[in-house]
Amino acid sequence: MTEAAAPTAARRAVTVEVNGERHTCEVEPRLLLSDFLRHELGLTGTHVGCEHGVCGACTVLFDGEAVRSCLMLAVQADGHAVATVEGLAPGPDELHPIQEAFRAEHGLQCGFCTPGFLMTLVPFLREHPDPRDDEIRRALSGNLCRCTGYQNIVAAVRRAAARLREAG
Ligand code: FES
Ligand code: FES
Asked: How many Å apart are CA 130 and CA 69, to the nearest integer?
């Protein structure tokens, strides 16, 4: 006797703007936004670490605000705008000032956590153009890095803030 196949939930069409480009896909209602970005759109710069909202590696911008894409469903992004680390640099041979600052200050080692830090910092530096160190540390407290010890990351945030202020 063969076992009956488990019923699958009906797929739903979602339309999401990702890094300025509209994508319409049919997805299972249970599909995580992080898996949608990585597996449906091939945007593997969004990393998945803990998959339960602790490490911050999967951070993306959702309508301009930093969110953990492992805690959202793709269907919740229907009709919204998502930005991932792939959309951060202004051009193929250029880095965003925050990326440049991480490179200059050695704010990364293996780089696994880095996309999450960068995407956390975009709205933080928009709202705190001249942050104090305690504000920087609080802003980064939801992003875990197992390599750097954080000193260089904090230095990178200071440098990025200065660059962004200079650039107006
Ligand atoms: S993978 Fe989303 S918070 Fe860790
Ligand atoms: S640079 Fe390796 S986990 Fe942060």
From this structure: 28
Distance from C-alpha of 88 to C-alpha of 90, rounded to nearest angstrom: 6
Q: Find all residues with CB under 8 Å of 80, minimum gap 6, and list them.
A: 16, 17, 62, 63
Q: What's the 150 CA to ligand 2 centre distance in angstroms?
A: 10
Note the pLDDT tens digit of each residue in 81-112. 999 999 999 999 999 999 999 999 999 999 99
Q: What residues have CB less than 8 Å from 133, skipping those under 6 apart?
A: 154, 158
CB 27 within 8 Å of CB 38 = no
Q: Is the CB of 150 under 6 A from ligand 2?
A: no
The reply to whether the predicted model has a pTM over 0.85 is yes
Centroid of ligand 2 to alpha carbon of 11 (angstroms): 36
Identify the bridge partners of residue 16 per DSSP, sorted by sequence position: 23
Nearest CA to ligand 1 atom 3: 53
Displacement of CA 101 from its chain's centroid (Å): 17
